[in-house]
Amino acid sequence: MASSKKRSRKRHIGNKPGGKPNSDASLRKHVVELLKGSHAHVSLADALADFPPEKRGTFAQGLQHTCWQLLEHIRLAQWDILEFSRNPKHLSPDFPDGYWPQTPAPADDAAWTKSLQAIENDLRAMIRLVNNPRANLHSAFPWGDGQTLLREALLVADHNAYHAGQVVDLRRALGIWSR
Fold it and tell me: What are phi and psi of 147, to 5 degrees?
C-alpha cells in the first residue's frame, strides 16, 4: 500500500536540481562559515565586543600583546592576504614589523573604531571573493608561489581564530571576560 505522506523534496544548499551534489558551492558555503567564525569557538567580533577603552593598551602578566596590538595585527595581516588574493601588483609589508602597530594603545577611540571597521570590511571582501562563482578556489594565482584563493581564505580564517583566542585569554587575564 502506498503511503499518503509526501516526502520532503527540499533542495539543500550545494545540491543541483535532481539531487546531485555541487561540491564547489558546498565548499564555498563552508569556507564562508569558517571565515565568519563562531562554530567551534568564539568569533572575533564577540571576542572584541565591548572591550573597555581604558584596557585596550594594557598588557596582562604573562601575555605578550595588548588588545590594540592584536587588533591591528589582525587588520594588517587580513588586509595583506586579501590584497594578495585580488591584486597581482600588491606588495606585502615587511615581516614582522609591517604587521604590528608601533604603539601598545590606540591614539583614540576613532583609531580603534577605524581598525574594527577595516577588519569587518576586508572580511566581507574576502567572503565576496570566495562566493564569486567565477573565482576558482583551486587554481594557483599567476602571481605568488602556488597560493590559491582557497588557501588564502583558510589562512584568514585560521589567523583570525587564533588571535580571537588570544583576545579571550587577554580578557580573562585582565578580568574582563564574563563567559
Answer: -65, 150
Nearest CA to 70 out of 47, 39, 52, 46 is that of 47
How far apart are the C-alpha atoms of 114 and 21, rounded to whole Å?
A: 41
Q: Taking the model in full, what pTM does it have?
A: 0.87
> Burial code of 103-112, b = ≥16 C-beta within 10 A, e = fewer?
eebbeeeebb
Question: Of 29, 126, 31, whose CA–CA distance to 74 is shortest?
Answer: 126
End-to-end CA distance of the chain: 55
User: Which domains does the chain possess?
Assistant: 48-174 (1.20.120)
The CB density around residue 37, as the number of other CB atoms within 10 Å, is 19
pLDDT digits (tens, 9 = 90+) for 137-168: 999 999 999 999 999 999 999 999 999 999 99
Q: Which among 15, 24, 13, 14 has a CA at the least distance from the CA of 138?
A: 24
